[in-house]
Every structure is written in structure tokens, then in C-alpha cells.
Amino acid sequence: MKRPLIILMAAAVPVAAALVPMAANAAFRDGKPVAATSCAAVAVSAPAGTAVEAVTAVAHAGGTVTFPAAPPLHPQEETLTDVPAWCDVTVTVTHSGANDHVTIKVALPQDRKNWTGRFQATGGSAYLAGDFGSPLVAAMKAGYVAAATDAGVGANPLDVSGWALTSAGTINTPLLQDFASRSLHDMAVVGKDVARRYYGNPVTYSYWNGCSTGGRQGYEEAQDYPTDFDGILAKAPAINWDRFAVATLWSQAVFNEEQVAPTQCELQAFTTAAVQAWTPSMGSKTASSTTRKTATGTPGGWSVPRSSARARRSRSPRRPRTR
Q1: How far is Cα 45 from Cα 51, in angstroms, rounded to an integer?
Q2: What is the mean pLDDT of residues 252-259?
């Protein structure tokens, strides 16, 4: 039995350096050349406790593919060129007693010779469990069978009002479980099974690739389902949400309580000063120790208009509480 190779990375690493597909060496089936595979729905197996509700397939011609802007994760239009023709197989699954409907999308190169034999599952960001847009197609273009899931919670990365609570105002535990872990294992099993049935050959190696929420998902997979992937690229993992989520709101809570929220021009002044303080000077490749010291002090590095600072202090006799 092949032993899984689990690679955990918390720092951002170029995907090309960590997930380099090898040239396909199996453009044959049963000893006969296979040029292309028709895009059609296939029968799919799911893990125990997961039931398949529907399977659909849509063919795409490839070429130049443009993805419209979708703030906040994709603030600008994105374009991929030289994309091979591919097939999107969409699998909808549910879980007993959960009343959920989880969508798993699998993107497969239509031409068998464009597949490296490898599988890549892609992660989400914030409250988005997976991205069905450019990350999925980019992985497919690189020679992978690529997969993503919406975990049954939709496509809004910031607003959880549509799924986090039930109509009675209680925690929607089944969907929370889907978002946290269950949908990830489903995607791994279903995605690899779609590839096997579509091409007639099993996946040779499988990988996880995600950042932020996708990094957390990678850690979750390594912890609970270590045999799902041969390698895991988990960048900037958003873990320990009981502290992480509170920390993201702490500054705003202090600003509100102490009535010391900085103005936009003050924020811009801090940003400009920080950038200038850390900009290499006169051709130097790294910031000097003098510049670093400047970045931590008020004179020269972190100054704001005095009138604005006095105005803030006059409205707030107390110092902001930070602990």
C-alpha cells in the first residue's frame, strides 16, 4: 500500500514550485491510444453516510477564458489563455438527517493526453469553502483533475446569515460540520472517483492546495483524513477561530468603545509612513537598521497631523484598553 506523503506549509509558497505535474505517460487505455474523452455524467461513489443526489456534465471549448470580477476575493477580471477543452462534472451530495445539499465541481481535461494522472483539490477563503472559478480552471490547465466544493453554504465569503443559524435561531450544526470538515473528505473521495470513471484509470497522486481557509482545510484533512492526499500545500492557515475571529474585530471594538477611530487620512498617513520607512534607500537591497528603527518611532516614521491627534485625545480621556 502506498504510504501518503503529507507536506504542511504555513508560509506562502509558489504553487508551481510545490505542485509540479509530470508529463502524462498514459495516453493509452488497454494498450490502445485514447485521443479524447466525451464529456458526460458518470456514476459516482461517495463515502459512507453521504448520498449522491445528482450528477451533471458540461463541456467547455477552452481557449481564452475570462472570469468576471467578483469582489472581495477577485476584485479584478481574470483571464487564462491557452486553456485546453475541459469537462465540468458537478456532483450534488447530501447527508442523512442534515437536510443539506453540497455541490462538488470536478474539472477534467477532455483530451486524455492533457491529464498528468494527478488530482488537485482546491480550498476556499474566509467563509467560502471552495472557488469554482479561476483557481479550479488554472489547476485543470496545469494537467490536474481539479475539484472544489461549496460545502453546502453558498458562495458568499463574508456573509453567513444564510446558513449559520436555523430559522429558530440555533446553530445549524450540519452545515457547520460540512464547512468545517465533512465536505472536504467528500470532495476527495468523489473527485478521485470521478477521475477514475471518466478516464478508466485511477489517480496516481493527489494533492491539496489552499490558502487561508484553504490552509485550515488542509490541516483538517491531514489531521482527520491523512490518506486522502499524498501532499498538502496549506498556506497561511486560518486556524484557532475562537481567537482568530475575535482578533480580527478587536481593533474595531476598541475604536468604538473609546471613540478613537482614526480618520481615513490618518490611516493613509500611517500607511504611507510605513511604506516609506521600509523602502530600500539609494539602491540598497534591504532596509538599513536605521530605517527599521525609524519605523518603530514617532519622528520620521509614524507621524500623523498633530491637530488630528489632539482632536482624538480630547474626545477620549481614557487610553484604549488592549487587554
Answers
A1: 9
A2: 89
